[in-house]
Amino acid sequence: MPVHAEKLVPQLLSRFVKNRRDVSLSLISRSSERVYKLLASQRFDLGFAEVMTESPLVDADEMAMDCVCAVPIDDPLSKKQVITPTDLDGRAMASFLPQHFIPRRLHEIFEADGREFRVRFETQNAASQYVFIEDGLACAMMSPLSAQNYRLTRPRGMRIAFVPFRPKVPYRVAILTPAHQPLSRLARAFADVLKAEIQAIVSR
Fold it and tell me: What DSSP character marks residue 151?
């Protein structure tokens, strides 16, 4: 996914190949849907994507987590232990394109609670939402991985707080491998590194 090809995955790859001087790599960023299709071609070793579908051509090691609410650091909501639809009723939100499962789920949750989910900014990925939140123009819902990407790309001062949201908005990602090609020991080793890092981010 493009948002994780910027920092998270390159950092892991850099550490992984540091003492493997004979290893070369290609890192390609595409939409999650496209990542599935590329892995189905059996021409790539490893993919990382949001869970989109099931394919007999792709093996998926899935991991689940709960989305967090991203709010400006100086907003009173940043001091809350948990944010709910009541807190965000009618507030300007940055969100993903309408077909993405996060805004679809949020519309359902807010409607069931009798609250307004008001999208002011629609973007293709979470990284594009950071500035709107930093500037106090919106709040947003994103995965813990996108929150970690923000921390990695803003090492000199964070202007966004990430707060748990209830009801839960599940977010699933998968490490993808080709179903009909044997996985090399090298690719398996990096898959294990990537999975361990994701689990560590979620636990934090």
Answer: H
What confidence score (pLDDT) does residue 154 get? 86
201 burial via Cβ count (<10 Å: 0-12, 13-18, 19+): middle
Could you tell me which of 143, 165, 198, 199 has the C-alpha nearest to residue 8? 198
Amino acid in position 42: Q
Angle at 87 between CA 139 and CA 64, to 5 degrees: 65
pLDDT at 9: 96
Instruction: Tell me: pLDDT of 155 over 80.
Output: no
What would the two tokens of residue 13 be? 């790859």
- Give dist(CA 155, CA 142) in Å, integer: 19
Q: In a 3-state reduction of DSSP, which class is residue 54?
A: coil
- Rounded distance between C-alpha atoms, residue 93 and residue 169, angstroms: 16
Q: What is the mean pLDDT of residues 92-105?
A: 96
